[in-house]
Amino acid sequence: MVQQKRVIVTDDLDGTEGAKPYRFAWQNTVYEIDLNDEHRDELLRALQPFIDAGRRAGRRTVHAASGDDRAAIRQWARENGHEVSDRGRISAAVVEAYNNR
Predict the structure, then answer these.
(1) ∠ CA 47-49-50, rounded to 5°
(2) Distance of CA 37 to the CA centre of its chain
(3) Do residues 39 and 14 lie in contact, with contact meaning Cβ atoms separated by under 8 Å?
(4) pLDDT above 60 (res 61)
(5) How far apart are CA 55 and CA 60, in angstroms?
(6) pLDDT higher than threshold 60 for residue 10
(7) By three-state DSSP, how is residue 9 classified?
(8) Alpha-carbon distances of 27 from 2, 31, 61, 96, rounded to whole Å
């Protein structure tokens, strides 16, 4: 017997099929949204004046960078009541809390 699974990605705004994931960041928080082409273009048109006027910031404003940083974040998180694993990805919420301490 053969089983086949399909993943159908739907637009987060209107539920149409065929959407793709897009990421953007605001205030040190990374968001992901699934959008069809029309809504992607709408988002880009809304953001474009701010993108044009802004400047790129270093990645550290959004992500923890090195292994040393991750170790420090894990230690801080445990000491401050956050639950984190010994390995793997650290949640954006914990990284944000660490960065805003």
Answers:
(1) 65
(2) 20
(3) yes
(4) no
(5) 15
(6) yes
(7) coil
(8) 47, 10, 9, 9
